[in-house]
Amino acid sequence: MGEPIIQTRDLTINFGGHTAVDHVSLDIQPKTFTSIIGPNGAGKTTYFNLISGLLKPSEGQVFFKGVDITNLPPEKRVRMGMGRCFQITNVFPNLTTIENVRLAVQAKAGVFYNVFTHYLKFSQLQEKAMEILDRVSLTDKAYALARSLSHGEKRKLEIAIVLALEPEILLLDEPTAGMSLEEVPIILDLLAKLKAERNNTILLVEHKMDMVLSLSDELIVLFNGALLEKGDPQYIMRNEQVQKAYLGGMA
Fold this sequence. Notes:
The protein is α/β, with parallel strands linked by helices.
């Protein structure tokens, strides 16, 4: 194996007397699909927030492609190639779908808003935005206002916005949160497509076990803030410690 794209070394964060993430050391290999699982309260989203820079660790370090980014703010991590989607959808509701994506394409290209220049002067940006919408199967909604999209379509749009920034790693925190059972396959199909492309490393937090088992190259199990086990899905599902953690930690 080559150099990990993400490394955490003894990563720890304390909130008062509670240790939410407890000396977690992990390597994430490039171009892999890795899912973080664990019972409620295991520290999954908090660990994500430490990687993406929303939280500062009490101890330990985070490395991106061998560079120590522990003290870098989130926006600098994004510029380095880290993209993050949150549990709550975050799009501009009064802009069209393609406008949401084009703004991200413009930001990546360093083309900033100018009231005297029509966006069509930058046709290559519009074309790039449409290509990204095609990747997430939203071309038929390109000129619809984002507020009119279904919840599942908004999640796809949020992923499209992150993809427009050309990240090397996608950090996806429960992308199916709040979805109806009918909408979940929309995101499942998109993630399967992104995995097949192998253009990005994907790090996922998700509760739906059938989903992570079908998609993941590797599973990371957190329990009470600490690393319990890691390995391929078959190994993890046979692991007695993991079974006890789940049986004791969640229904």
